[in-house]
Amino acid sequence: MIFSSAFFFHCLVSFFQINVDQFIEILKSFKPNIAQCLCDTVPSGESCKRNRKSVDRTLKFLDELLECRKNSDMLKSIEILGSVEGGDSETERVRCAVETSKREVAGFVVEGIEPSSQNWEELLKTCIKNLPSDRPRFFPGPMTPDHIFSALECGIDVFDSSFAYEATRRGCSLNLQCSSKRCKPELNHTNDVTEKCKATQSKELEENISENIKKTRFEMNIANIRYKEDFSSLVIGCSCYSCTNHTRAYIYHLLETKEMLAEVLLMIHNFHQYFSFFKKLREALNNDTYETFKQDFLRT
Ligand SMILES: [Zn+2]
Known about the structure:
Blueprint: E1 6-10, E2 15-19, H1 20-30, E3 34-36, H2 48-69, H3 73-76, E4 79-84, H4 90-102, E5 107-110, H5 120-129, E6 137-139, H6 145-154, E7 158-159, H7 162-169, E8 172-174, H8 190-200, H9 203-215, E9 219-221, H10 241-245, H11 248-256, H12 260-286, H13 290-298
Bound molecules: zinc ion.
């Protein structure tokens, strides 16, 4: 069967298009337990017409996918998550959430809301208010712990781990212990990037860097020369493989010589820190100590 819905994607080298048939072929090859329906994400600031179109196209793709799923036992074994789109239009967000809820989906992914944008929490709450609470609500994308607290309070249930991945790509080590055990601001890389920004005077770099600065409260830039002869672990007291076997100086050396092992060790540590943060968060929610945990964690 040939369907009309298709979305364009861009990867590192080019653009490509995926229609429903091709998406189903991908699902059949990978056989995941769960898959998010493809969607048309629009950035904030787009016209009402464009926001409406994003919802129409997203729902159409979902309907065609679910129609095809009815006739395939293999596809029936894959749970489908519906995507909630609509740009920054509250009307379209509500329409998409309500319409997606009517479909046979296992959960919802709220797409296209940047935690750095204005009124993101209000928009997120609008989506959540119109989604049933008996199915999980996902909020994908890299988020600092303070954004995670906010999204959680809006009603989000599930997050991904792309923040840990992005920190690793920046050559950074996460420290997500409570505030008293975190490095002081002068030891993280806020100063490094600010200096780099002043030196280059590039507008584009300035914008990228100002975004990064927001994330650096929980990071140390291990590629900084100050760690060349620092023989302590990435985070003192961390029980991960990288911290119990290697030093900041060794990982600095690996980053300096562009050894792939640098990212492997940083990734092990960053995942450990990120997953430990979520473990403590779940415990705080279960023990009714969420507010204390949050205040203690965010204290500067
Ligand atoms: Zn560690």
